[in-house]
Structure formats: structure tokens, C-alpha cells
Amino acid sequence: QVQLVESGGGLVQTGGSLTLSCAASGSNFRINVMGWFRQAPGKQRELVAIITSGGWTTIADSVKGRFTISGDNAKNTVYLQMNSLKPEDTAVYSCNAAGVILPGRTFGSWGQGTQVTVSS
């Protein structure tokens, strides 16, 4: 099993910044891709950003130019830097990781989620 632990959520004013972190732990695993999703009340979960182990990233149009995803392969950790936050960014942000538990069993794991609230 691969466990994900998120941190960094909280309450911030419009225009503020937050950085989310997600660390993966377990034994004998390799992560291929990690990412952040969010779900606002009454809405479906949506992709925010993902990053592959090779550093390729994709960012949702709704946050492009404001959010940046980065990763530290050595630490199995992914970060989401969120700037210029808006009230519509308010949601539960969840980390996801997919990869392989050696020698060859694929896995997909979710973190517990962290609340981000942006006040107007």
C-alpha cells in the first residue's frame, strides 16, 4: 500500500497564497504520476494539476497562471503553489498518486483531502 498525507490547506483571503504538500510513503514503490484534484460543495471533482516523474505537467485552465505544481522525486512529494486565490477556488483538495508497487503491481492512491477556503 502507498499512503498519501496532505498538508497546507487553510483559510486565506482573496488574492492570497497557499502551498499544499502531499507526501507518499510505503515500501518498494515507484510513482509515475501525482496530482491534485478538488471538489467544491455541490460540484464534481475536477483535475487541478498533475506532474509525471519525468517532470511533465498539466494545469487546468481555471487555475493556469495562478497555480504551479512541482515535485520532488527523491521525497515522493508533490507541491501545489496557489497564488492569487479566488473564492471559487474554495474546495477540498485531494492528492492522487499512481504508479507501481515493485515488481509490477499497479496502484492508485488518494489522500484524505485538505480544505482550502478563500474568503471574499
Report on the structure:
The protein has 120 residues and is an all-beta fold. Helices cover 0% and strands 62% of the residues. The protein contains no helices and 11 strands. The strands form 2 sheets. Strands 2, 4, 5, 6, 9, 10 and 11 form a 7-stranded mixed beta sheet that branches. It is elongated, with a radius of gyration of 14 Å. The mean pLDDT is 96.
User: What structural class results from the helix and strand content?
Assistant: mainly beta
SS elements, strand count? 11
Uncertain residue ranges: none
Kindly provide the radius of gyration, computed on alpha-carbon positions and rounded to a whole number of angstroms. Answer: 14 Å
Number of helices: 0
For the biggest sheet, the summary is: 7 strands, mixed
Succession of helices and strands? EEEEEEEEEEE
Amino-to-carboxy terminus distance: 40 Å
List the helices and strands and how they pair.
Blueprint: E1 2-7, E2 10-13, E3 18-26, E4 29-39, E5 46-52, E6 57-59, E7 67-72, E8 77-82, E9 91-101, E10 105-110, E11 114-119
Parallel strand pairs: 2-11
Antiparallel strand pairs: 1-3, 3-8, 4-5, 4-9, 5-6, 7-8, 9-10, 9-11
In short:
The chain is mainly β and 120 residues long. Helix content is 0%, strand content 62%.
